[in-house]
């Protein structure tokens, strides 16, 4: 498919040409021309009338299948442009949805993409109905007024069905999530801009071979894998990548997937350290905006500068310091900024940061575990090492183990026939239960 791209830049809209071209390539378009303009938005055509004439000449010369705007088009602008150019005109978000449709594999991802697409179509159909009533004969997809009205009803009915199906998926996921917490898993969520290397990091952490390509929106399906960190059981989930200006209808459609970030114990915000600082800053701010919309900025977060093997140590240190300044200015609590190379398996800084932040989680507490039967000591120690950290052990007639333990696993320990006391700041204990 051949396409002409259009980019309008202004003080209020800063569009990355490189990112737009990457989106076009990811959607499978052959880009025959890119038209750029610096001006504020024209209410009727988005671009000025002079540029519209240039665009018309390019359309006549190259005969593209579509004209694609890097900016968001209102329904009336899209119709006006189509009327002038006599070729299909779409905007950035329709382009993103086309990529999503190509990448969606699971039933859930396909439902989310369909919901987002239908939500996008609603205002377009309403605009078509409005113009028909004005005598413009602007049916939607060649349909007349009655057919367009019926199509709008169908869209709304289908959106209701999809939302109910996604609610069932959400309920099933919530059951699985609670069970994982009950058996002592730490929940990590990989978040960040598209193509930052999240899937490669998941592979490095879990020793998996999940598809990881150097292209935008490789991951639309939620992928969860397990790994162990110093004996602790950890689940890491890869989520859909962010993009600058992510519109509310896409956030809503993918809410069940993005909820993995909301429910996580720790967020790993992944950035591509090899990019110029201007791009890193833009993508960091875009990611923080989405996390703010999800109300997750109060969660423990580690900013992960990936691909450090593609730049220098001095560059990494400079970018890490700038990132700290940005998050501190905005009052965001970030545990640490670390640098890694997921591709080369260089994850030492990330492991160290995770070890520290895990023990600060609300689900952890300091306890004394009293084992009265010597033969049970190895089993109790193994379980504690899997769900916490041993601080000290005192052997004797009774084995006393002081440790950080996940509170959700207290019942599991009590079932082994031990006594458990919560330790206060002075080190004194208050009994929680005795399995004898």
From TrEMBL:
Residues 186-362 form the Hflx-type G domain. GTP binds at residues 192-199, 217-221, 238-241, 306-309, 341-343. Its cofactor is Mg(2+). PROSITE patterns: G_HFLX (PS51705). One of its GO terms (cellular component) is cytoplasm. Mg(2+) binds at residues 199, 219. InterPro entries: G_HFLX_dom, GTP-bd, GTP-bd_M, GTPase_HflX, GTPase_HflX_N, GTPase_HflX_N_sf, P-loop_NTPase, Small_GTP-bd. Keywords: Cytoplasm, GTP-binding, Magnesium, Metal-binding, Nucleotide-binding. GO terms for molecular function: GTP binding; GTPase activity; metal ion binding; ribosome binding. Coiled coil: none annotated. Belongs to the TRAFAC class OBG-HflX-like GTPase superfamily. HflX GTPase family. PANTHER family: GTP-BINDING PROTEIN HFLX, GTPASE HFLX. Monomer. Associates with the 50S ribosomal subunit. GTPase that associates with the 50S ribosomal subunit and may have a role during protein synthesis or ribosome biogenesis. HAMAP family: GTPase_HflX. This is GTPase HflX. It comes from Thermococcus pacificus.
């Amino acid at each position: 498919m051949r396409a002409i791209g259009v980019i309008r830049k202004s003080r209020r809209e800063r569009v990355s040409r490189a990112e737009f071209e990457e989106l076009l390539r990811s959607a499978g378009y052959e880009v025959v021309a890119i038209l750029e303009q610096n001006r504020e938005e024209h209410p009727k055509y988005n671009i000025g009338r002079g540029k519209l004439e240039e665009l018309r000449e390019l359309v006549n010369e190259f005969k593209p299948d579509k004209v694609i705007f890097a900016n968001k088009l209102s329904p009336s602008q899209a119709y006006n442009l189509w009327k002038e150019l006599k070729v299909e005109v779409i905007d950035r978000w329709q382009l993103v949805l086309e990529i999503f449709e190509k990448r969606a594999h699971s039933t859930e991802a396909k439902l989310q993409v369909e919901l987002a697409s239908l939500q996008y179509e609603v205002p377009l159909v309403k605009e078509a109905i409005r113009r028909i009533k004005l005598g413009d004969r602007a049916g939607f997809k060649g349909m007349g007024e009655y057919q367009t009205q019926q199509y709008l009803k169908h869209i709304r009915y289908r959106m209701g069905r999809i939302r109910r199906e996604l609610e069932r998926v959400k309920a099933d996921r919530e059951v699985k999530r609670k069970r994982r917490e009950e058996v002592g898993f730490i929940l990590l969520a990989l978040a960040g801009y598209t193509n930052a290397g999240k899937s490669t990091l998941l592979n490095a952490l879990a020793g998996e071979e999940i598809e990881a390509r150097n292209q935008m929106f490789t991951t639309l399906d939620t992928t969860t894998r397990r790994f162990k960190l110093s004996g602790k059981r950890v689940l890491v989930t890869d989520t859909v990548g962010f993009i600058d200006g992510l519109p509310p209808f896409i956030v809503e459609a993918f809410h069940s997937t993005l909820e993995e970030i909301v429910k996580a114990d720790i967020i790993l915000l992944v950035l591509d350290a090899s990019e110029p600082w201007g791009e890193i800053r833009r993508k960091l701010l875009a990611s923080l905006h989405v996390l703010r919309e999800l109300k997750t900025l109060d969660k423990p977060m580690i900013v992960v500068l990936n691909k450090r093997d593609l730049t220098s140590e001095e560059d990494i240190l400079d970018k890490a310091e700038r990132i700290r300044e940005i998050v501190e200015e905005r009052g965001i609590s970030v545990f640490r900024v670390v640098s890694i190379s997921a591709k080369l398996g260089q994850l030492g800084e990330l492991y160290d940061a995770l070890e520290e932040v895990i023990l600060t989680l609300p689900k952890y507490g300091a306890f004394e575990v009293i084992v009265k039967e010597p033969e049970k000591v190895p089993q109790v120690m193994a379980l504690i090492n899997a769900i916490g950290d041993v601080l000290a052990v005192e052997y004797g007639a009774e084995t006393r183990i002081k440790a950080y333990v996940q509170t959700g696993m207290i019942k599991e320990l009590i079932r082994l026939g031990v006594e458990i006391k919560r330790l206060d700041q002075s080190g004194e204990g208050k009994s929680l239960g005795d399995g004898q």
